[in-house]
Every structure is written in C-alpha cells, then in structure tokens.
C-alpha cells in the first residue's frame, strides 16, 4: 500500500470517527429527555459529555490544521450545539459585587456530611459562622446531624436562625424568616429524602424544597473492592466495571423516580418555589431536567467561572439552587470549604418588579 493510499485511509478513518463522535454527542445532549429505565445507555451518554466535547474540540483543530474546512463543520456545529450545556458548568463574566447591598434574601444549600460525626460541635459552629459571614437568610442542610456530644446543634443555630423545619432522617431547613408550614417527603427503600418549608418574607410566601437524592453507589463499590483486595481477593477489571455500571444505573433509575415524585409535589404549590439540594446528578441529566422544570438555574442566570460542587477528583456539579421565574437572581457562587465532600452553594434572589 502506497503512502498516498495510507493517508487516504487514515483521513477516512478520522472522518468516520468525527461523524460518530458528533452523533454520540448530539444523542448525549438529549439523553436527559428520556427516562433512564429502559434507556440506560442513552441516559449514560450525558455523563460522558465533557469527554465527547473535548473530542469534538480535538477534531475541530485537526481538520483546521489539515485545511479540510468542509469536514471541520461537523465538530464546529456540534460544539455550537453544546453551548447551552457548557453554560451549566462555566459562565463568563464576573459576580455582582453589590448583590449584598441590594434588596432580597440569600439562600444556601450544603451537604455537611454529618459534620464528620465529630462530637465537640466545632465544625457545626464554623459552618454557622460562615453562614453569618455570607449573610444567609435560609439554609438547607443535607446529611445533617443535630447531635454534638451532649449538645444539640439546633440550640446554637436558633440565635441566628430562629425558625427551622426538621425533615426526615438527616435534613433540616433553617430560616431567619417565619416558617408557616412544612412537609417531609420520604423516598421508599432508601435513607435519602426531601422536604419543603413555606417561608414568609415580607408580603410574599415561598416554598423552599430541600432534596437529597439517591447516591451513585460508585464510592461504596470501590470501597468494597479495595477491602476485598486487601483480603487477598482477585478483583477482575471487567467484574469491577460491571459492578460500577450496574450500581450507577440502579442509582440513576432511583433518582429519576425520586425527581418525578418531587416534580409532582411541586405542581401542587400555590406559591413560588425555590429548589435546593444535593441531586447526586449532573446538568442535562433526566434528574436535572425534571427538577428544573420551568424554573431558572441560578448559576446560568448570575454565576461566574467554573462551577463544581463536589470536592476531590470528581470535578462535577451535583448541588443546585433553582428558583421560580417570579424571582430574579442577583448572585450565585460556592465557597471552597473543607468541612465536607461537598461545597456549599449560595444565591441571592429578589422578587421581580
């Protein structure tokens, strides 16, 4: 085979790869529109979107260097279609530095990981001090533990947050404004749950949801595999991958059902809604789309820079604040605190005029 034939063959294979990557990327962009149950592979493509986007960027550069501008159109069009997705994780521009001086109220969501189960209460106090520094009016905690030795965290929080609603298991909503009603929403066959509290601020009442959806199961699977290897067991890579895929698929299906349950509950609200929590799922997923509904993603509205809310190697956004269109976002940001495996997310909103 001559040199020219090899070059043509290589170019043809690169063209096929470009086309397939475009198809997978576009399918992934709409993977969150289908129920994961029965469509697991399609739904899973949402989680591969960052890699697929990187692949399209590579082929855009490749065809540009090769001066094949007509083939360059495929990755270019694909990347343009990905702009709304990219904006859920990265936003150009700067934060509104005057947000705290503007009228409105600030809400926060934070998975505090049981305050690491420490017994002195110092971690809960540090987090409370941070809420004061950020001038938070309402905070939704997931994986909350009210006991610190022989004391209760709620006793120390009530000076700054005089109102609170305790949810099922490990959830709570603290507020500086009166809570007129609340409801727990337990999920079947899991310790995860959700809740809401209707909070009166001035002449308006808002229903604030606090949600902690099913975990991925990946960390548990890796932990069990590591323990088995320490005992001398031989863990085959294909077996581990099957276990990871299976656990993630089960968690994904469970989260979709929980999101559907909450979406039905939200339809019954007669007041504007704010949704906070640890969804354990990424933007553009079925869970994200279902929880968002006709609400506004606060980060897309008034965030800035890169938004990841899970600490460690997994640079993903799984903690959110959404709000009713009757509200307007002023600022949206995270604080890189080290108390948990999550970062707290803050948002200030104001009623639209």
Structure commentary:
The chain has 353 residues and is an alpha+beta fold. It contains eleven helices and 16 strands. The strands form four sheets. The protein has a six-stranded mixed β-sheet with strand order 6-7-3-2-16-15. A six-stranded mixed β-sheet has the order 8-9-10-11-14-12. Strands 1-13 form a two-stranded antiparallel ribbon. Strand 9 (193-201) and strand 10 form a beta hairpin. Helix 3 (49-65) runs antiparallel to helix 4 (69-81). The radius of gyration is 23 Å and the shape is elongated. Mean pLDDT is 89; it is low at 218-244.
Q: How far apart, in Å, are the first and last alpha carbons?
A: 72 Å
Spatial order of the strands forming the largest sheet: 6-7-3-2-16-15
Helix content: 25-40%
Give the radius of gyration: 23 Å
| Percent strand | 15-25%
Output the number of helix runs.
11
Shape: elongated
Structural class: alpha+beta
Biggest sheet descriptor: 6 strands, mixed
Mean pLDDT: 89
The helix-strand sequence is HHHHHEEHEEEHEEEEEHHEHEHEEEE
Secondary structure: number of strands: 16
The stretches of 5 or more residues where confidence is low (pLDDT under 50) are 218-244
């Amino acid at each position: 085979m001559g040199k020219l034939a090899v070059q043509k063959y290589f170019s043809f294979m690169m063209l096929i790869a470009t086309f397939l990557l475009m198809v997978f990327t576009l399918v992934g962009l709409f993977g969150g529109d289908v129920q994961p149950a029965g469509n697991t592979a399609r739904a899973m493509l949402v989680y591969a979107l960052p890699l697929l986007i990187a692949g399209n960027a590579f082929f855009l550069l490749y065809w540009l260097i090769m001066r094949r501008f007509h083939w360059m159109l495929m990755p270019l069009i694909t990347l343009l279609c990905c702009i709304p997705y990219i904006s859920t994780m990265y936003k150009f521009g700067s934060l509104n530095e005057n947000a705290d001086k503007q009228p409105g109220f600030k809400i926060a969501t934070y998975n505090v990981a049981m305050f690491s189960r420490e017994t002195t209460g110092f971690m809960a106090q540090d987090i409370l001090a941070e809420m004061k520094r950020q001038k938070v009016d309402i905070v939704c905690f997931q994986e909350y533990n009210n006991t610190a030795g022989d004391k209760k965290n709620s006793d120390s929080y009530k000076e700054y947050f005089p109102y609170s609603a305790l949810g099922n298991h490990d959830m709570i909503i603290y507020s500086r404004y009166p809570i007129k009603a609340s409801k727990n929403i337990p999920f079947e066959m899991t310790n995860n749950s959700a809740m809401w509290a209707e909070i009166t601020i001035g002449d308006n009442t808002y229903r604030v949801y606090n949600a902690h959806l099913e975990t991925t199961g990946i960390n548990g699977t890796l932990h069990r595999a590591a323990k088995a290897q320490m005992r001398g067991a031989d863990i085959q890579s294909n077996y581990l991958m099957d276990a990871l895929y299976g656990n993630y698929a089960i968690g994904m299906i469970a989260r979709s059902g929980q999101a559907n349950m909450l979406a039905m509950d939200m339809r019954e609200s007669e007041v504007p809604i704010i949704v906070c929590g640890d969804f354990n799922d990424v933007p553009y997923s079925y869970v994200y789309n279902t929880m968002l509904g006709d609400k506004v993603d606060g980060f897309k509205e008034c965030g800035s820079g890169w938004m990841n809310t899970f600490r460690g190697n997994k640079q993903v956004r799984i903690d959110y604040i959404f709000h009713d269109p009757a509200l307007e976002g002023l600022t949206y940001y995270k604080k890189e605190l080290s108390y948990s495996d999550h970062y707290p997310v803050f948002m200030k909103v104001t009623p639209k005029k």
